[in-house]
Amino acid sequence: MKIALLGGTGPQGRGLALRWALAGVDVIVGSRQREKGERIAEELTERLGKSPGGITGMSNVEAVAEADEFVILTVPYGGHRATLESLKEELKGKILIDVVVPLAEDNPKKVIMPPEGSATEEAQAILGDESAVVGALHNVSARVLDNISTPINCDILMCGNNKKAKDEASPLIEKLGVKVYNAGLAVSARAIEHLTAILIRLNSSRETPFRHAGIKIFPENES
């Protein structure tokens, strides 16, 4: 399996690239500048050493074209709309896993939702029905993703309007060693993305004894 990570040169994208490569997935790190994608891919490959999956770097357009089916978007929210609009044609027929949260540029403890209601809904509106958008991995700390020596410490809430796309995306996400829960239609992203700002606030508070906590779902009668 070969996937593309757009924004794979950032902290969250790097962590995901490392973990998927360790799980045997071939990862293409996409960047607006091909040279930057290649450089980051080399750095990640050197860090991993020999791994079941490979990491290569390309431009965003090339990365989407090379992806078998899945494209993961991890760009900062400021580049969310522009990235999707520039790749709308290339993304036709692909499944986009949107990890982006619309955090305020001047305050990461606050979200500013777009008119569509959430980043996930914005992505689906931009791409239209020819691409399926799945919102997922919003609530995982970039620091947790980067610490590949330890398991990811949270569950994943996934949403989207296309059930088939969610059913196909779930096994890929579970390769990261996490449990995935279908949280419903794309409108659920309004709550899920808001949770990220709440987690950032809790993780940065002097009143809490932790720094990189996530969301965990506990079944009834399980502690």
Q: Could you characterize the architecture of this molecule?
A:
This protein is α/β, with parallel strands linked by helices and 223 residues long. Helices cover 37% and strands 18% of the residues. The protein contains eight helices and ten strands. It has helices at residues 11-22, 34-48, 60-66, 80-86, 119-127, 142-146, 163-174, 189-204; strands spanning 2-6, 26-31, 55-59, 70-73, 95-98, 103-104, 107-111, 132-135, 156-158, 180-182. The strands form three sheets. Strands 3-2-1-4-5-8 form a six-stranded parallel β-sheet, with helices on both faces. It is globular.
Average predicted confidence as pLDDT: 93
The tally of strands reads 10
Main sheet specs: 6 strands, parallel
| Percent of residues in beta strands | 15-25%
How are the strands of the largest sheet arranged? 3-2-1-4-5-8
- Cα radius of gyration in angstroms: 16 Å
Q: Quickly count the helices.
A: 8
Helix content: 25-40%
Element-by-element helix/strand order? EHEHEHEHEEEHEHEHEH
- Distance between the amino and carboxyl termini: 36 Å
Shape, per Cα inertia axes? globular
Low-pLDDT stretches:
none
Structural class by SSE content:
alpha/beta
